Amino acid sequence: MGQRVITKTDFMSYLDAPRHLWAIKHGKMSKKEIGAYLGHLYEQGYMVEELAVQYIKEHLIPQYKVANEDILLQLSQTEEPTNDADGRYEARTDLLIKNPTTNKWDMYEVKSSTKVDKKHKYDVTFQSLVFEKHYDLGDIYILHLNKEYFRDGEISLEELFVAENVTEVVEELKDEVKQKRYEAYLMVETENIEDVEKCIRPKKCPCIELCHPNLPEYSIFDINNLTRSERKVRELLEDGVLDIMDVPKDLPLSEKQRLQVDVAQSGETTIMDVEIRESLDELVYPLYFLDYETFNPAIPMYDGYKPYDQMPFQYSVHVLKSPGSELEHYEFVETEAIDPIPKMFDSLESVIGREGSIIVWNKSFEATVNTRVGEIHTRFKEFGESMNSRMYDLMVIFRDPLYADPKFKGSYSIKKVLPVLVPNLSYDGLDIGEGSVAMASWNEMVYGEGKDREKVKKDLLKYCELDTLAMVRIWEGLVKTISQI
Fold first, then answer.
1. Structural domain count, the chain
2. Predicted model pTM
């Protein structure tokens, strides 16, 4: 034992789930193709790192007024074991710089987020433990994007980044991280995987065959928000409860969770027809079924935007002007490398009048987009406010849930609801079938190279159109269902 090295990345995998690290170290991790969306995330991270290095050189280092030998960029170090039972730990830091006031080395770690989260704190604590064996460390900072920065002309690096001092947090976490990294080191040497704790989030698990090889079709992990209580999940697993059909009647659950379990175990659909009818009666013709596609770059691309602002580039609207009238469809997607808001919202405003209900799936998203659009381009402020005041969230019927079917598996995603209510309409077979892929594909189409632009445009329009048509058909299904009860 004693030859394996635990890197910072290894340690973070261990915190995610011990079995994930075991899979990495034993060559058992599932090999997944990097799709368009993951590629987009990596690209955003690289862009932030590139600008962060520029910021460090042009703005941060000059503040210290030190010689070149007191500046260490992209440095790696290893903490050697103190005895045969100890582990070896390896970390890399973005910047170490000698502070002439304290005569200590300040450490900086770059993150592409707009805030410091819990994982970042553990990450940088691991680094500090390794580097303090080689350097007399002073203050420790996480350099991240400034959520309050908005672009006005050329990117201002000085305003784009914020250096947040996390020295006190790191000190508080050191003992815990020392213990956990040692546990990670010992765990890697374990040959029996059954001794290694599995994850409790199979939907995001990178080694599903190791963590959950015999997962039932409808498991306890499908119960909404149950994994927020790790203790409850672990207790169920210890009792041998994996299938939702085996969840005890006396298990403490929220009202929505209990309804989900009861519906699953009974196999019967629950429809609160009075509540659904009252909800749908709020709708006023003409009905506008609306969906946006957006892109959220880490680095603002145009004036008025903040880091990770949702930049709408496409819409689809299905319009029903009166009961029984013919369904109309309107659409737009920006294909030029320009701020997409002006042309898109000019087009949308010509379609959506000042009266009638605007039906969406997940109101908080579209409403937030409308508000930001009005802030970035003030001439659309009144239009955005008008839309938000008339917005109706069709998703709420399934979220609350006023309509619960065992086949939904507790989800209120349109992709789970549609096959149950409208089985003849499907996202299957679409080359672009998810919002995250649409976003990445649009970015590549407009700003990248080598893509078949006409095909991507066609695929984007087809996907967004299906989103709003799906809402139309689900609404029709609800109206028909409650009229028969």
1. 2
2. 0.92
